[in-house]
Amino acid sequence: MDSYDVLDDFNSIVVTKKKEFSQEELNELFKWDSKYLDSDLTKDKVIKHHTKKVNSKTKIVYFLRGNTTLIGYCEFEIDKIISHIKIIWLFAKGYGKLSMSSLLNYLSLKYDKIKLVSLGVSVDKTENKQAAIARFNLYIYMGFNIFNLKWDKQNEYRVILYMKRKNISLNFHHAK
Predict the structure, then answer these.
(1) Can you list the domains of the chain with their CATH numbers?
(2) What is the pLDDT of residues 68-121, one digit of tens each?
(3) Which of 63, 125, 171, 176 fits a disulfide with 72 by CB distance 3.0 to 4.6 angstroms?
């Protein structure tokens, strides 16, 4: 198994490329994806997405607590030509800070030539205000800076903030 442990005072978060899932884990992935990603997703589509190779540029890593309990995942694309990783989707409800720090540690070890990590954060009027604020604060805490803002043309009440982090080294706590 391709994994990297990051120890915290109270928790151990493992970042791994998971190959096999229990039925309970597949149910959990479906629950998360259909609630937070796209309510129109079918269980079959979610299972296929998580069990089949997406494409050569896209990777999915999973966050495990204590090396056993699935607590979230991150899907990202790698562009080695421009030394860039783009986070497409990150889910780790209640474990954002630990999962993001573990992810950055994993990426800095696995892809040591990468110099930039970026992500898009969208917010719309139906979203819980405190959850949106917590997400923004997490990314800012992790050293991401806003470099662009775009109003979604299809939904006038949805905004996307594009954020980037130029350094993915292990000293993320002191990023300004």
Answers:
(1) 3-174 (3.40.630.30)
(2) 889 999 999 988 777 889 999 999 988 988 898 888 888 888 888 888 899 988
(3) 63
